[in-house]
Amino acid sequence: MAFEGMRVLALESRRAEEIAELIRKQGGEPFVAPSMREVPVTQNQEAFRFAEQLFEGRFDMMILLTGVGTRQLQRLLATRYEATALAEALRKIAVVARGPKPAAAMREMGLAPSIIAPEPHTWREVLAITEGRTERRIAVQEYGRPNPELTEGLEARGAAVTTVRVYQWDLPEDTAPLRAAARQLAAGEFQVALFTSALQVSHLMRVAEEMGIGGRVLEKLREILIASIGPTTSEALEEFGLQPGLEPSHPKMGFLVREAGERAQSWRAQR
């Protein structure tokens, strides 16, 4: 059997039972921790309040931290405003991209960033490259987790910083399984982790950081086989410094589980 008894973590919500059965058929021991629940778009009032301020000209600069979050912000605002409203507003201010991925998302909207932070594309590079800029009313797009170091660094220069967290999904009402997954990850009890959406890693780390074990969870994730359903999910993983060991030949759950099982054998042999 492909996994040969390995413990396999999955964070699927809607199809939790299905992925557990697929893992069992491949010889794995599944631990499925639902990580998401859909919330109505209208509940993301934080994003809409930000949009009103942006459209009223209350910002001089916006910092885009992730490509995933930039695209989701554009889609979210398009449910209430013109599809081009965000792009038109951003053309009027300085826009900083924290690396090539948010820059690519901007290009999809017909925009070019004013500044792109250099490698390794962390908050430190963002602070360094904006040193000496005169803009003081700054919006920061967050996705998955806050970045207090960046916010505090900007505020230390006298900037007024507004953060906007982008989401259409939130944590499940019962987070006990997700917390159990974080504890077991920190303890090194999994050999494989399967991610089927970009937000799963953000929600896992949100809970882990609340528990005070975020660093340990990331450390252990780097030691196991991570399988990502596709490029968007891989990008979200990379935002946390995690490199997927594989993307399946087709972005479907069955291919993901089967090909992760096949890869698990060679991965274990290399450990």
Furnish the topology, listing elements before pairings:
Elements: E1 7-10, H1 16-25, E2 29-32, E3 37-38, H2 45-55, E4 61-64, H3 67-77, H4 85-90, E5 94-97, H5 100-108, E6 115-116, H6 123-129, E7 137-142, H7 148-156, E8 160-165, E9 169-170, H8 176-186, E10 192-195, H9 198-210, H10 214-221, E11 225-228, H11 231-239, H12 253-270
Parallel strand pairs: 1-2, 1-10, 4-5, 4-7, 5-6, 7-8, 10-11
Antiparallel strand pairs: 3-9
Characterization of this structure:
The protein is 45% helix and 15% strand. The protein contains 12 helices and 11 strands. The strands form 3 sheets. A 5-stranded parallel β-sheet has the order 6-5-4-7-8, sandwiched between helices. A 4-stranded parallel β-sheet has the order 2-1-10-11, sandwiched between helices. α5 (100-108) links the parallel β5 and β6. α9 packs across α10 and α9 packs parallel to α11. The longest helix is centred in the C-terminal third of the chain and has 18 residues, at 253-270.
Brief descriptors of the model:
271 residues; alpha/beta; Rossmann fold; 2 domains; five-stranded parallel beta sheet; four-stranded parallel beta sheet; 15% strand
